[in-house]
Amino acid sequence: MNQKLITVTSPLLPELDEFQGLLKEIWDSKWVTNNGQFHKQLEQALCEYLKIPYISLFTNGTLPLLTALQALHINGEVITTPYSFVATTHAIWWNGCKPVFVDIEESTCGINPDKIEAAITPRTTAIMPVHCYGIPCDLERIQAIADKYNLRVIYDAAHAFGVEVNGESVLNQGDLATLSFHATKVFNTLEGGALVMHDAETKKRIDYLKNFGFAGETEVVAPGINSKMDEVRAAYGLLNLKQVDEAIEKRHQVAMRYREALRDVKGIRFFDDMPGVRHNYSYFPIFVDAEQYGMTRDELYFKMKEQGVLGRRYFYPLISTFSTYRGLPSAAPENLPVATRIANEVICLPMHHGLDEDDIGRVIEIVGSSSC
Ligand SMILES: Cc1ncc(COP(=O)(O)O)c(C=O)c1O
Q1: Is there an atom of ligand 1 within 6 Å of 240 CB?
Q2: 68 lines ligand 1 (CB under 6 A)
Q3: What pLDDT is recorded for position 370?
Q4: Which atom, in ligand 1's list, is nearest to the CA of 91?
């Protein structure tokens, strides 16, 4: 079989010529990191594009999670979702806090607000929800619970670049929100990430924290880390920002083709657009009901693979099943029935700006023809 391999994602790359032009500027200036001109420009451009007041750029999407917990002095227990990339829970653990897993709701794959209150103890200090696949969590109910119990909310918004609810960025919700600009994301800087905050004071503190805690040449005000974004990646990001809307629109077209073709396939479920939400189509998860579909999720996954179509079982296995976390009382599968089922049903289909009609047709052909 000599068919082209269809990958689950593909990085959005700037025009090489344009990038070379900016590299030349960096070479000429010899200013390659530490809040250079492209770093400043990208922060400003992202604030405008994302409709957010303040942002701080990072070297990946994991360090903003770690830094957010540090910045807010979070300790004790942090309520979170097991249905995410493992970095979400690792960040809690690395801060010496105890992750407490709460089940998700099927309608968003985000943390289920109905289950949060029962997980709160006198040691709970924060909630760390995830806008899984860029689908907004139940923002209002999460904030209401946080207000009632005086908890901080840090959104892992790694998937939610450009996502808005009723014209407002989801990144403005909670105390802080984090982004990932990894190569697999809608907007990428190769590796990269950011923290979004509401005020200048918090930005100043986070800018210190990502630069070893330095507040000037000779003063260190906090036990910081080194997680600054360099000029090369900031320049790359500036170029990608110019084409991200077009890339999101291409993803939207792919999502519409998948939905149209797979809507009547028995045993396959997927998300539709939500009213009032600007989606970014970062992923196209489908959920396989093996009994109705006539094939298990894994059978379909390997069948796709055999035919050169790479899906991704994202998020499987659940974070709560990994050896570091499975001993926690909240990690028990009986505590997480929805997440446990969804993790066994999900495959993310190929989704990126570069898929052409043939690629989409091949994916649809395989997924659409597997039912009995
Ligand atoms: C939900 C979530 N959080 C955090 C991260 C970590 O981001 P990064 O890979 O940029 O460190 C990812 C990365 O895939 C993610 O999907």
Answers
A1: no
A2: no
A3: 61
A4: 4
